[in-house]
Specification:
This protein is of the alpha+beta class. Helices cover about 25% and strands about 50% of the residues. The chain is elongated.
């Protein structure tokens, strides 16, 4: 026996109608929750920026930083650049390391999330950096020690660009005292793609107590190393300085292992090139003019000091295989005028000795000529010249020429007319 087909169709229609009603009511019931979820997702960056979540995220991301970084305020939006204001970094003792009024990303927040290996550029305006230097390190090295101690590995960023405008670096130096860099502009590009892995351009004024500000401009380009153990690879540094106080540079010389102490005001230009991780370095001086110049080097000069109201140096100097190579080097000062070309021994940490120098020069290809003011040298360098305390040289010039060739006999000529001395 068969049922009524009209009745079956009626039941199906009621069932379909019931399903549509239930589905519609479910959709209308879920709509507020969907709107709320979409709103929360859209407002998530704003919520993070204006609550304690931002500082918790920073603390988790910078767990290895030996100090603390806080952000006064932030502007976060999925489709807008990230802006952070009033950033303050302090060390573990609460001493300021940096203050950044404004930091802005080039990419939007979504762009940073989806391009983590290429975050683009970051723009920093008028930051203040506080740097404390000592012979064995600095406050920034202390704060970043956990990062510096980590073994090197593959970089998680392929490309990064940083632009700094109007920065001030306050330096407290245990050797040179307090000085600062003002109006510092920096363009930095780091890339693990083809081409240079590091490009940097910097310009800044350097101000030291009691001296007019000097100016430094420099451009650094580093190429990737063939040997992965040589992190610096090859590169070139081109620099210019104008009216630069030399005293602040002493800390950098000490940290580079050079037993030198400089004083005076210098204007200079040149470049520094190297290959295979700082091997075969080459320095070129296009000019160097210093006023009220003084040089001290206990290892080379003992207690003596070389001083000159004016010093001018030009030429090409390179270092290779334990030798200094000179090409058309010219030096003019109050006490000497020298010209040199050829090679000279690099020397050792034992200090300077005239007999060792003369003996070593016999094995080199070198030609040195010039004029020396004997009286001025005797006054400046009595220890090196081994002049008795009771002897005083009052006048006299020495004109000399020294030539030596590997495998041949060296030649030396000198004339010293009208030299006057007193004493016993």
């Amino acid at each position: 026996m068969h049922g009524d087909p009209h009745q079956g169709r009626s039941v199906r229609k009621r069932w379909l109608r019931l399903r549509r009603v239930v589905r519609r009511r479910w959709l209308f019931g879920m709509l507020p929750f969907l709107v709320l979820a979409a709103t929360l997702v859209a407002m998530a960056p704003t919520i993070v920026a204006n609550t304690g979540l931002l500082h918790k995220i920073l603390s988790a991301a910078l767990v290895d930083f030996d100090g603390r970084i806080t952000v006064g305020s932030a502007s976060l939006g999925w489709l807008s650049p990230v802006v952070a204001r009033d950033i303050v970094a302090v060390d573990s003792q609460g001493t300021p390391l940096a203050q950044v009024p404004s930091l802005r990303s080039q990419r939007s927040l979504l762009g940073l999330i989806f391009h983590q290996r290429d975050p683009g550029g970051f723009h920093m305006e008028t930051p203040a950096i506080f740097l404390s230097l000592r012979p064995d390190g600095s406050n920034w090295e202390d704060a970043l020690s956990n990062y510096l101690d980590q073994p090197g590995g593959e970089s998680t960023v392929d490309r990064l660009q940083v632009k700094v405008v109007g920065a001030t670096v306050h330096v407290r130096d245990s050797i040179a005292g307090e000085w600062q860099m003002e109006d510092l502009d920096l363009d930095l590009m780091m890339s693990h793609r083809e081409g240079p892995w590091l490009e940097m351009r910097v310009a800044t004024d350097v101000r030291s107590a009691g001296a007019s500000p000097g100016r430094i401009t420099a451009e650094l380009v580093c190429q990737a190393a063939v040997d992965p153990d040589q992190s610096l690879g090859s590169g070139q540094l081109v620099w210019q300085v104008a009216n630069l106080p030399l005293n602040p540079m002493n800390a950098l010389l000490r940290r580079a292992g050079l037993d030198l102490e400089l004083a005076g005001i210098a204007s200079a230009g040149g470049e520094w090139r190297w290959e295979d991780g700082l091997t075969n370095p080459q320095w070129r001086l296009s000019k160097l003019n210093a006023q009220q110049f003084a040089l001290r080097s206990p290892a080379w000069l003992g207690e003596d000091t070389i001083a000159s109201n004016s010093l001018d140096i030009r030429g090409l100097v390179s270092q290779m295989g334990g030798q200094w190579r000179m090409e058309n080097v010219a030096v003019e000062s109050d006490f000497a005028r020298l010209e040199a070309r050829g090679t000279m021994p690099q020397g050792s940490d034992r200090g300077f000795d005239w007999l060792d120098l003369i003996r070593d020069l016999q094995q080199e290809d070198v030609r040195i000529s010039g004029r020396l003011d004997v009286a001025a040298l005797a006054t400046m360098m009595p220890g090196m010249l081994r002049i008795r305390p009771t002897t005083q040289i009052t006048s006299g010039n020495v004109t000399f020429s020294l030539a030596s060739q590997t495998g041949g006999e060296p030649s030396f000529s000198a004339s010293c007319p009208n030299t006057s001395s007193t004493g016993t």
